[in-house]
Amino acid sequence: MEKVQSLLTRASHHPSHVRCSINRHRGGRESRDEEGDGDGDGDRTTRVEVNFFQPGSEEDLEPGPTNDITSLVLHLPREHKKVVLYLSLISLLIFTTAFLLGYVAFRGSCHHCGDLDGELVPVDDTAGSEHTPTGGVAYLGELRDMLRKYLKEEKIESTVRRVSRATHPPGSMEGNELASEILHNFRRLRMDHTWTDSHYATLQFPSRSQRNFLWIVDGQGEVLEDISPESPLDYCAYSGTGTATGGVVYVNYGRKEDFDLLVSRGLPLEGALAVARIGGGVSFAEKVWHAQQAGLGGVLIYPDPADVPQDPRRLGLFHNASISEHVHLGSGDPFTPGFPSFNHTQFPPTQSSGLPLIPAQPISANIASKILSQVTGTDCPRAWHGRLPYVRCALGLGFSVPKGRRVKMGVYNSMTPVLLNNIFASIEGKIEPDHYIIMGAQRDSWDPGAAKAGVGTALLLELARTFSSMVDNGFYPRRSLLFVSWDAGDFGNVGATEWLEGYLSMLNALHLSEKPVLQSASPCVRVKPLYLNSGAYSFTAFGGVPAMELRFSEERRPYPFVNTQLDTAQRLQEMLQGRLGALGRSVAELVGLMVLRLAHDHILALDVTCYSGSVLHFSSQLKKYSDELQARGLSPQWVFSARGDYNRAAETLREAILNSDIQDERLTRLYNTRIMRVEYYFLSQYVSTVETPFRHVLHGRGDHTVGALTEHLSLLRSNSSRFDEARFRRQLALLTWTLQGAANALSGDVWNIDNTF
């Protein structure tokens, strides 16, 4: 009998993406359109990114396997095992925004916390009650039953088909029609408010006058063979433009360690063209960035059969199909970094440092095979071998015969200003209306986007309809629920990021970001750090808000059609064996149950001591280099002191909450306010949001982060001549005071802060 193991991943303050596995042996302007009358169900369309906060109650624990959410998964029919792979397409992004609530951090006393990817942590499922304005009490179990009663599967498939009937990129006629339909559907529901939030962003599209090309040329530059991609729609948004010609270097996944290996072997990379395969835990943007840093002149990215199924007879990718993805090393509009893209604002000429200068182009496995089969040079490491036919894995740079042949690529994508529209609907909370649980989903897609945009949109609208029906029947959420259809997700989550940039200062001023844990709200899940291309990443790394991306996949086998013209409703339904509606409802129920907990509990269920483990790990790294640091007159004493202050403040707050009356609304709000500031204070206040938007010292990117400091520290032994003492002192000081600020925030009143050195 199939057994599904329900586990919640590491609940440290590590924002993350969550993978729920089922194995065989384990189980801007803001233009507001106020609400219309809610009188019907309406259609549903979107992919789901669920921003959410979560509180957790310690009362009425229900024992082990009777966990309601666990039961939801345990009782899935045998054929539903395929939900894993296929609903990884669904990409239910679960993240908390800066005025919402949501930390992914369950851990009890934190002994369950860890830094290993995929760590599993058991989750409880506590019971609680909901007070209604009429004085009655709705228990959490009754709310669960109500949720299950009103969730329907009928429209999920039809919505997916509607969303994916044609490509619908931002600003297109099809995209605008879809946005209007979603707004209309929201207005038909019992929502307190519906509105749109508009931004003007610069997006990059293929040129209408000049196609991108890829040629094999001789020593004089004459074209020997045109191997250009078949479709002009295969492109990398935000690629550098122009031409590049050079020898070919195979760079495996294009990770930093891959380029380090090539450099260690003495390959002359300057000006060469990199051929990288998809995967390896890095995005297209990171592959291109690493190539540019190594001095290469361009990048070609292909799906290798070893990583992406490519047998059309078994619903795999065609060998002549390419996979597209943007290559901006960041999120949001790259021409207004750190600023919201409101039309009435006059911005100085600036652009994101994450925009690549070199061209990048997706290619098919066939094209990659044609190139790499002619490449000569040193044999690849065994771990670099893929499954391209007729290819002897060589690093490059030369071609077989005749000598002097090279590859020439040309990219002519063009920048275009586009009006983006995020669509909002809300149900006001009755006790804490200024705290929000946000459920969002990407709407746009430069391909049909059945899995990428269709499923999420369908689930978002079904959840909106369900919670609206629950309100009609007596449900009053403690906190406000927001349902959001985001625009321009394919270009680096532009719509969501611009909205966050536009309202972050207001949100901080209102202290609306409560950050609870995903404690008992979820079944068994695996938690891994958020990756750069995740829709949730900017909420944490830029906005200081906990974030999660929830994915479902089968035995780690990827769905091959995402970001291709083959991502259609028909193929999705075939892979799900006709169970799209039923599986979609199961996922919607899972998310809905999580949201119920997030909207229900009094105290935000966040164990603030969990970040102590991350800082302790870094402290241990510093201790390893104590001799080298002392020899240079450097001391990590102040970091250790700040870590101690944070540990004491976190433990004191935890004990105070455990010994308090959670029915005291004033006290509860005070505690939640202190909890919610923690993530925000892990944003470095000493770097510019324009130059360094991802300011989070643990999850961000830049010289201020723990990762950058650790990497710099390692130079003391690996290459001491490159160690910059002045830079290190600055890094250490910024980290120390960021950590001290988080400790001070947890301490609460200024007279409780012990800041004596």
From TrEMBL:
<feature type="transmembrane region" description="Helical">
    <location>
        <begin position="83"/>
        <end position="106"/>
    </location>
</feature>
<feature type="compositionally biased region" description="Basic residues">
    <location>
        <begin position="11"/>
        <end position="27"/>
    </location>
</feature>
<keyword id="KW-1015">Disulfide bond</keyword>
<dbReference type="GO" id="GO:0004998">
    <property type="term" value="F:transferrin receptor activity"/>
</dbReference>
<dbReference type="Pfam" id="PF04389">
    <property type="entry name" value="Peptidase_M28"/>
</dbReference>
<dbReference type="InterPro" id="IPR003137">
    <property type="entry name" value="PA_domain"/>
</dbReference>
<dbReference type="GO" id="GO:0009897">
    <property type="term" value="C:external side of plasma membrane"/>
</dbReference>
<dbReference type="InterPro" id="IPR039373">
    <property type="entry name" value="Peptidase_M28B"/>
</dbReference>
<keyword id="KW-0675">Receptor</keyword>
<feature type="domain" description="Peptidase M28">
    <location>
        <begin position="422"/>
        <end position="501"/>
    </location>
</feature>
<keyword id="KW-1003">Cell membrane</keyword>
<protein>
    <submittedName>
        <fullName>Transferrin receptor 2</fullName>
    </submittedName>
</protein>
<keyword id="KW-0812">Transmembrane</keyword>
<keyword id="KW-0735">Signal-anchor</keyword>
<feature type="domain" description="PA">
    <location>
        <begin position="245"/>
        <end position="307"/>
    </location>
</feature>
<keyword id="KW-0325">Glycoprotein</keyword>
<comment type="similarity">
    <text>Belongs to the peptidase M28 family. M28B subfamily.</text>
</comment>
<dbReference type="GO" id="GO:0140298">
    <property type="term" value="P:endocytic iron import into cell"/>
</dbReference>
<keyword id="KW-1133">Transmembrane helix</keyword>
<dbReference type="InterPro" id="IPR037324">
    <property type="entry name" value="TfR1/2_PA"/>
</dbReference>
<keyword id="KW-0472">Membrane</keyword>
<dbReference type="Pfam" id="PF02225">
    <property type="entry name" value="PA"/>
</dbReference>
<dbReference type="InterPro" id="IPR046450">
    <property type="entry name" value="PA_dom_sf"/>
</dbReference>
<feature type="region of interest" description="Disordered">
    <location>
        <begin position="1"/>
        <end position="46"/>
    </location>
</feature>
<dbReference type="InterPro" id="IPR007484">
    <property type="entry name" value="Peptidase_M28"/>
</dbReference>
<dbReference type="InterPro" id="IPR036757">
    <property type="entry name" value="TFR-like_dimer_dom_sf"/>
</dbReference>
<dbReference type="GO" id="GO:0033572">
    <property type="term" value="P:transferrin transport"/>
</dbReference>
